[in-house]
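#onboarding

Welcome to the new folks! Below is a worked example of what a typical request in this channel looks like: someone posts a single protein sequence, and someone else replies with the predicted structure as tokens. Don't worry about understanding the tokens yet, we'll cover that in week two.

Example request:
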Amino acid sequence: MALPINVTEDRIIYIVEISGGSPFRGKSWDLDDYNRQMEYKHSKKIRNEIGAIRQEINVIVNGTCMRFHKKIKFTSAAGKSTLERACTDADRRMKLIDPTLHITPVFFEQTVTQLSTGNMFELMKKQLNEQVNQRILDRIEQTLEDAKVKDKEGNVTSVKPITQRTRDALLKMIEGVKSINILDDETVNTRLDAIKEQMQTASFDDMRNELEDYIIDIQDEDDLEVNPSLPAKGMKADANLDEEEYQPRIMKPKTSAKPQTNINTEDTLPEIDIGEMV
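Example response:
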């Protein structure tokens, strides 16, 4: 396994798992075979406040972590410090709303040596390369879409030119993407610097096409067999921050209309795009 030049075998990388209190706590009960009613613990205003705190944490997660097979997130020592500070503040604000709410980060320490089992490190490098390019592609596609002027029927009538201000914002975003290069992979940094050079003069349509082709080439590479020693001890195999899911226990309705099912979930944080950081 060839390590990036800046990475030593005793380099520490962290697996990140963050849990948070749900805004959707409450009680629910069956109305009939097809309908179910729910009574939330908090008002809509409070639920929105809880959701806003969760979103803030998700922005930071997306800006400091690389994803491995979607379910697992890795960060560096610097990313860990950033997340710890943010989660401490978010947890404090959650508890001001409701003492039973929380934002709790857990970090599982891994060395590069541990991660080098089989071809796992090489696969991480491949996924990292794909992720940074995909984030830039998504932002460029959104920029091109926003530039379209449409009539009431949704037909495109004209396209606004890409301004220097827009290019500068994207250059800043690309520089920010470097923060998820927790492996210090020079291939990724070199690629990002090349995209920044393109950004100065190339058309966004050309850049979109080039990024699409580049990502396809990465995806077409033969998958490497991996036999990782993950998840780390104590970590749930399906831990992730990407979905809001809860499956309340369904109970038969009684004669009274009192709620029968308690929903007190500890769910995960919905994903938002890294571009919203800029």
